[in-house]
Amino acid sequence: MRDPLAPRMRWWGWGVDGHPGLPGHAESLLRSELGAEGRRRPPVPLEEVRLPASVYPGGLRERLAAIVGERHVRDDRLTRVAHAAGKSYLDLVRIRSGDASNAPDVVVYPGSHEEVAAVLDVCAEIGVAVVPYGGGTSVVGGVEPLRGRFPAAVSLDLARMDRLVRTDLRSLAVTFSPGMTGPRAEAALRARGLTLGHFPQSFEYATVGGFVATRSAGQASTGYGRIDELVLGLRCATPAGEAALRTLPASAAGPSLRELFVGSEGTLGVVTEVTLAVRPAPEARRFEGWSFASFEEGVEAFRALEQEDASPDVARLSDEEETRINLALASSGSLLERAGKAYLRARGHGEGCLAILGFEGRAREVERRRARTAAILRAAGGVALGEHPGRAWERSRYEGPYLRDDLLDRGVLVETLETATTWSNLPVLYRAVGDALRRTLAERGTPPVVMCHVSHLYRSGASLYFTVLAAQEEGAEAEQWRAAKAAASDAIVEHGGTITHHHAVGTDHAPWLAREVGALGIELLRAAKERLDPAGIMNPGKLIAG
Question: Which regions in the chain score pLDDT beneath 50?
Answer without folding.
Answer: 332-340, 342-343
